[in-house]
């Protein structure tokens, strides 16, 4: 045998954004081992922000050229670059919330993750000790995995990327400084259910490989067109792949982890998941639908359309019953996953463009929402029960006004990014003759407006009680995150043309 192992050709310039983030994450691990504890927070935060800015610069330098590298495993194209830039920018804003240390002693994260909950040592670390800085390299690993997930061009690389960004998130969810048992419970639920979803995804890969004989999307698309193999393998495999992706997207019936995890995780981590993980999940789903399985369009629209309707309605209806602000935002996130599926199922350039716009618009809005949540506090930490928000408009009219605007954006009122985003995905669905999805979306939007307006009424028309907490003065990083999210929500509602043009200029996936 004279055959030699052929190493794949790698375009390091095209891969540089994710390589930078992986490198920063590895350096962050070394910082934990060699830098004195008192200096770690400043070093880790600075290193992480510089790494994200450098990765963003490299994404912008890519331009609009299409590159397929690592054989056919990674596809750097217009939508992949746009989604990568979105993850990085939203990651920077999330990192500002993660790095905040002035709202409470030591920040939102536990000092020693191994400390037993509700012990004297646990109470001592909650009162005095500086929070863990391991969260920064974990966040960098998660964001790097998300970048790879959006540009993965075969199923195996997509699975590896899925695990790379999921495992750090499981850990991050367990690191809350306060309410340690709730945080650990959330992490355990997320880990167990996420493991099942990953197993489904892996079994789906095996079945699709059995059908097509390949795992890259172009070969799968060709096999669907020409293969004489039994289609049962294809459709069962596709269903299992969809389960793995819809779990990350928090779509019904794979949404059950979302409320508990959103409530139990440290709020900055919840913000990271709500914004960046949703972009990554839908980035992978878009590439799967538009490139690998575009020839099964009709079957996908029927099955995923049903999932979209259930997601919108279940998210909206259950949001009405919530009494905790973080759980309310969780069910809002579920409903928004349904609206995004409406855009995905248009299976057109307009559907792709409107879905990418929606991901960015929703990401900024939800980050601003969780930034406000971190500010409403009492002696025990964040006051998330809705009854505690009664009369907040009189205690702190500025932040109540900002949160009102954010909730109106979630409701989709004009002059907010929420209206522009929903109008885009609904218009794309109508053009694709998916009017039934739009009808369900409008109905669910009307239902979902009620819990949003209920919070607004509580803040402004209720008298502040003895249990109404004060709003903490935000630190510079939380204030920056709140300003960025709120301004983006306003600008994308009043003057969305720049971002719309960017999504349209991103074009279509390479290989489509």
UniProtKB/TrEMBL annotation:
It is a multi-pass membrane protein. GO terms for biological process: ATP synthesis coupled electron transport. Keywords: Cell membrane, Membrane, NAD, Oxidoreductase, Quinone, Translocase, Transmembrane, Transmembrane helix, Transport. GO terms for molecular function: NADH dehydrogenase (quinone) (non-electrogenic) activity; NADH dehydrogenase (ubiquinone) activity; quinone binding. InterPro entries: NADH-Q_OxRdtase_suN/2, ND/Mrp_TM. Its EC number is 7.1.1.-. It catalyses: a quinone + NADH + 5 H(+)(in) = a quinol + NAD(+) + 4 H(+)(out). It is found in: Cell membrane; Endomembrane system; Membrane. The chain crosses the membrane at residues 12-31, 43-60, 80-98, 188-212, 232-257, 269-290, 302-321, 328-347, 359-376, 397-416, 436-461, 473-495. GO terms for cellular component: endomembrane system; plasma membrane. Residues 152-447 form the NADH:quinone oxidoreductase/Mrp antiporter transmembrane domain. NCBIfam families: NDH_I_N, PRK05777.1-4. NDH-1 shuttles electrons from NADH, via FMN and iron-sulfur (Fe-S) centers, to quinones in the respiratory chain. The immediate electron acceptor for the enzyme in this species is believed to be a menaquinone. Couples the redox reaction to proton translocation (for every two electrons transferred, four hydrogen ions are translocated across the cytoplasmic membrane), and thus conserves the redox energy in a proton gradient. NDH-1 is composed of 14 different subunits. Subunits NuoA, H, J, K, L, M, N constitute the membrane sector of the complex. Belongs to the complex I subunit 2 family. This is NADH-quinone oxidoreductase subunit N. It comes from Dactylosporangium aurantiacum.
């Amino acid at each position: 045998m004279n055959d030699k192992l052929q190493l794949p050709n790698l375009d390091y310039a095209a891969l540089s954004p994710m390589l930078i983030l992986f490198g920063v994450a590895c350096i962050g691990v070394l910082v934990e081992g060699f830098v004195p504890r008192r200096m770690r927070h400043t070093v880790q935060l600075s290193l992480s922000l510089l790494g994200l800015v450098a990765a963003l610069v490299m994404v912008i330098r890519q331009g609009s050229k299409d590159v397929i590298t690592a054989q056919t495993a990674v596809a750097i194209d217009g939508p992949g670059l746009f989604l990568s830039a979105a993850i990085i920018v939203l990651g920077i804003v999330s990192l500002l919330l993660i790095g905040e240390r002035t709202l409470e002693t030591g920040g939102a994260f536990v000092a020693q993750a191994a400390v037993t909950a509700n012990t004297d040592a646990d109470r001592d670390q909650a009162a005095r000790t500086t929070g863990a800085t391991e969260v920064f390299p974990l966040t960098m690993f998660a964001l790097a995995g998300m970048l790879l997930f959006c540009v993965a061009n075969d199923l195996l690389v997509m699975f590896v990327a899925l695990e790379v960004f999921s495992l750090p998130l499981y850990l991050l969810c367990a690191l809350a400084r306060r309410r340690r048992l709730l945080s650990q419970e959330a992490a355990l639920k997320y880990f167990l259910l996420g493991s099942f979803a990953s197993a489904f995804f892996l079994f789906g890969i095996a079945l699709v490989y059995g059908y097509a004989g390949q795992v890259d999307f172009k070969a799968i698309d060709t096999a669907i067109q020409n293969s004489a193999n039994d289609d049962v393998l294809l459709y069962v495999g596709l269903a299992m792949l969809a389960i793995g992706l819809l779990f990350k997207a928090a779509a019904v019936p794979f949404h059950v982890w979302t409320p508990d995890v959103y409530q139990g995780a440290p709020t900055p981590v919840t913000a990271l998941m709500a914004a960046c993980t949703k972009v990554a999940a839908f980035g992978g789903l878009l590439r799967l639908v538009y490139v690998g399985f575009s020839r099964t369009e009709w079957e996908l629209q029927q099955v995923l359309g049903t999932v979209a309707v259930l997601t919108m309605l279940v998210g909206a209806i259950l949001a009405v019953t919530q009494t905790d602000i973080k759980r309310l935002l969780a069910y809002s996130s579920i409903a928004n996953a349904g609206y995004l599926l409406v855009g995905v199922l248009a299976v057109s350039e307009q559907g792709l463009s409107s879905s990418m716009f929606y991901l960015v618009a929703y990401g900024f809005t939800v980050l601003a929402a969780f930034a406000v949540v971190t500010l409403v506090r009492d002696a025990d930490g964040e006051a998330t029960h809705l009854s505690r928000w009664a009369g907040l408009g009189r205690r702190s009219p500025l932040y109540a006004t900002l949160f009102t605007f954010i909730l109106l954006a979630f409701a989709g009122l004009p002059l907010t990014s929420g209206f522009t985003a929903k109008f885009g995905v609904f218009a794309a669905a109508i053009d694709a003759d998916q009017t039934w999805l739009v009808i369900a979306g409008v109905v669910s939007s009307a239902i979902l407006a009620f819990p949003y307006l209920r919070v607004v009424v509580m803040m402004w028309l209720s008298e502040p009680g003895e249990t109404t907490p004060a709003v903490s003065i935000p630190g510079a990083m939380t204030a920056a995150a709140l300003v960025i999210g709120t301004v983006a929500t306003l600008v994308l509602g009043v003057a969305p043309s720049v971002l719309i043009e960017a999504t349209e200029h991103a074009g279509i996936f390479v290989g489509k």
